[in-house]
Amino acid sequence: MKKLIILLSLAILTFGGMIGTGFAADISMTLTPAVVEIGTFYDGTSVMVEGQIPANAEAVVRVGGEGEELHLKKKGKVGGILWMNTGDVTLENAPNVYMVYTPKEITDLDISPARQLGIPALKDRITVAPASEDKDFIVREFIKLKKKEALYSVNDETVKYGDISKGMKSFRVQIVVLPRMKQGIYQIDLGVIQNGKLSGIISKELKVKFIGFPAKLSKLAFGKPITHGVMAVFIAIAAGLFMGIVFKGKGGGAH
Amino acid sequence: MWHMYLPIAGNSVNIIAIFGLGGFVGLLSGIFGVGGGFLMTPLLIMFGIPATVAAASDSNQIVGASTSGTLAHWRLGNVDVKMGVLLLIGGIVGGTGGVQVIKVLRAMGNADFLISVTYVLMLGGVGSYMFWESLQGLRKDIDIPAEPAATPKKESAYARMLKALPWQSKFEKSGSEISLLLPLIFGVLVGVLAAIMGVGGGFIMVPVMVYLLRMPMHVVVGTSLFQILFTCINVTIMQSYSNHTVDFVLALLLLAGSTIGAQFGTAVGKKLKGDQLKILLASLVLLVCVKMLAGLLMTPDILVAMKGGH
Known about the structure:
Chain A has helices at residues 2-21, 111-117, 122-125, 135-148, 212-223, 225-246; strands at residues 28-32, 35-38, 45-54, 58-64, 67-78, 82-95, 98-101, 127-129, 152-155, 160-165, 168-177, 184-194, 197-210. Chain A is an alpha+beta fold. Chain A has one domain (2-210): Immunoglobulin-like. Chain A has a six-stranded mixed beta sheet. Mean pLDDT of chain B is 80; it is low at 146-151.
C-alpha cells in the first residue's frame, strides 16, 4: 500500500506537468532494442534512445531501476580511534539503478527541473529507517556508494540533437546497460525542460532478461537451492579429481 | 570477448582475469598450504563480485581444490585422518557455538567490534610469533651450519602438560602420542574463532597444528586440506540453500586457475626451507593484519556499506 501511494504520488508529480502543457502528443521516444537479453557471454550493452521534442526545449533522459529495500551498515568512530560499523539502517524505495543523461552540464540546465530529474530527487524518493537517523547523511553516503559502483551517474553532454523541422527537433542518446544491471524492468524517462520548467515526461520500459544458460542456472539456484548446492559440490569434487589426474596427483589449489 | 556472465553474482567477469586471480591465490596456497578464505574473497570483491557471492563461491572452489589436494597428500601418506576427524568434530561444535555467540553479540550491538578486534589480535599474534620463531630458526641455521648429534632437549611445561592429559592416543601419521581431548579442544576453539571471523579457519588451524599439536609441516598441510574439504562441503550446501549465493561457474574458473597456480607454488615451496616458508607466511599474515588495522584507524571514503559478506 505504501509503495502504491509513493508510485501514485510520483506519477502525479511527473505526469501532472505534462497534462498541464498539453503537448504530450508532440514528444516521442523509442528504445532500440527495447529488450536486452543476457546470455552466457554477455558483458553489458547499450540501448539507443531517440525521439522528438520541441525545438526550444532540452531533453533529459533518466534510467531508473526498480525500488529496493536495502540494508546498510553505518560506520562511525568508536572510542575516538577505531572506525567500526555502528549500526544498521534500512533504505526503502532505493532504485537499483539511476542514470541521468543530459545535453549539457546539468548545472547549466535550469536548477529546478534538473533537481526533479537528477540525483537530488532521490532524497525525496528514498525513505530511511529508523526515522531517528540523519536521512540527508545516509542518503548522501548511499549515493556515493552507488556512484562508486557506477550504478548511479549523471552523464553530461551525452544527449545530441539533430535537425529542426516544424518546430520540433530530434534527439538521440546511447544509454549504457551495465553487466551488473540485474534482470528486470527499467523505466526510461524522457524529461522535457522548456522555459525553465519541466514541461513533460514520457516513459518507456526497458526489459532486461536472462536467456539460455544464465536463465537455467538462475532458475535452479533460486528454485531448487539444495539440488543446486549438492550439484555445485559434486561438480567441484569432479573438477578437483580431474585436475588431480591432469596434474598426476599433484592437484591442490587455493584453500 | 573473453567475458562470461555469472547469473548468481549478477555481473560479468573477464575469464582470463578470474583465471589469473585463481592462479595467483593458488600459487600462494601451493607455497604455504593456506591462503584461500582470507585472500580470495577480498580480491573477488575488488573484481565486482558481491561479498556474499564471493565468500560462498570461494567455499565451493575450495571443495574442488581440497579434493585434489587431499588426494595427492593421501597418496603421499600425509593425511592424519584420526587427527583430522577430531579437529573436524571440534570445529563443528565450536562453529555452531560461535554462530550463537555472534547472534547474541549482534543483538547487543557489539559483534562487529569483536570481529575486527579478534581479527587484528589473532593475525597480529600468530603472525608475530611465527615470524619471530622462524627468524630464530633461520639464525640458528646460519650460526650452526651442521649440528652434530642432537642432544635431548629439556621438556617444556607445555609438553609436560600434554603428557598429563587423559585419553592419550597414538597419532601415527603425525608421529605423536597426545590426548584425544587436545585436537577436540583446539578444534572447538578454531571453530569458535572461524565463526566469529567468518572464515574457513585454515589460517588459524595450520599454526595450531604446527605449534600446539606439534605436527610435522607436511602432515599439517595434508590434514588441514582433509578437514577443510568437509567444512567447505557443508558451507557450500548451506549457503546455496539459505542465501542462494553459490556461483559454481565462478568457482570452476577459480579452481582451474588455482590448481595450475598451486603446481608452481608447490615447486617454489619445495625449494624453500621450513623456516623460510614460515617466515613468508608470517609476513603475509602480518600484511593482512596491518591492512585490517589501517581499515580500522583510517577514515573511510564512504561511511555506509552494504550488509552481507564476511
